[in-house]
Amino acid sequence: MRLSTLVPAGMLALAAGAASDACALALDLSGSVSIEGRAFPGEPQFEGQSEELQIALSAAPELVWESGNGLRIRLAPFARFDSVDDNRSHIDLRQGYALWRGDRWEFSIGADVLFWGVAESRHLVNIINQIDALEDVNEEAFLGQPMARVSLRRGAEQFSFIVMTGFRERAFGSLDGRLRGALVISDEAQYESEDEQWAPDIAFRYTISSGAFDLGLSAFHGTSREPRLIGAGSGTLTPFYDRISQASADLQWTKDAWLWKLEALVREGQGDVFAAAVAGFEWTSPGIAGGVADLGLLVEYLYDGRGAEAPFTALDDDVFIGSRLGFNDAQDTALLAGAVLDLEGGAQSFRLEFERRIGSSWTLEIAGQAFAHAEATSPEAAFEDDDFLSATLSRHF
């Protein structure tokens, strides 16, 4: 089991001291516990990979203290135990911060998860938190990042400045785990900065919502959340984290049933300066099938111009096509299907997700993923035998 780096003790001590001085303190406990089963129909491609049904238990409680003087303290730990992949068993503090809020400002300190961006297929500009790659192959789960954040609001505008340290390394699967490459990835990372994970990172974010437009502008300087994997000739790959600078923009325009979306960035520090972008739309037709469902169509193009010295990405010239079906019933039943098609190498990835509430406290999620037609020499070929089907039953409280 890996124990993730949590919030420095001083941060929570500061929050606890503030809480003891607050009057009219209110407490709220919520969260969920889940059991997940994941099956891989195909034979393992690499020696040592398990053929067993993968069972995982997880807990995600959330505790919030609210005071009458603008103080909020939130604790949201996460724990997972996996029956097959030891590296997937871990404990993390997704959120553990104190937040003070005024009329036009707020200040927070501690671990938090911030999400930036508007695209469906790739969260290109979302750079603050490390991806929890073992939780979700589609990069939808993130590790908590220790930070201090100041935000100022002026009408529809918001300015945020963030200072971070305590960098979170990306976790990779163990030899037993599926969805991994042929080579072992070392747990000992290397850094460009002599301060390694304690090197300071800074970020700035400006957002404005004006009628049909939502615009975000961001800048980041610090340790890249994407590692380069070096040392292939030795049989073991070592993650290497560069220092980078990045400027990005995300835009969403709402027009009747259409959502037009764009995320774009420019980055330097990993070989030549490069640009990347995701652009597309989401169209929704409400009230189909006699008014009992809403149908959405999603199309996005993904471009990434990075060179060979940057971390590898499979999403450099691809198209995402998806459909979302919401049934508008009391159980919030929803179905999402999507495919990513590589326009150069021909690799394809297909995803199907189903979700439904059971009663007032349970949810069932079923997901399937399939990979096909990757070139034998491409990194995507490592997953071609790792099609899987998973089911997760969660109890919410």
Characterization of this structure:
The chain has one domain (41-55, 113-396): Porin (Beta Barrel), CATH 2.40.160. Mean pLDDT is 91; it is low at 3-16 and 18-24. It is mainly beta and 397 residues long. 4% of the residues lie in helices and 54% in strands.
Observed structural traits:
single chain; 397 residues; mainly beta; 4% helix; disordered N terminus
Task: Summarize the main sheet.
Answer: 18 strands, antiparallel, barrel
Count of discrete structural domains: 1
Mean pLDDT: 91
The helix-and-strand class reads mainly beta
CATH topology: Porin
* CATH architecture designation: Beta Barrel
Oligomer: single chain
Beta-strand fraction estimate: over 45%
List the helices and strands and how they pair.
Elements lengths: L1 E2 L5 H13 L4 E14 L14 E13 L4 E12 L7 E12 L3 E8 L32 E10 L2 E8 L19 E2 L4 E2 L9 E10 L2 E11 L4 E3 L5 E6 L1 E13 L2 E11 L5 E14 H4 L1 E12 L12 E10 L7 E9 L5 E11 L3 E11 L15 E9 L1
Structure summary:
The protein is mainly beta and 397 residues long.
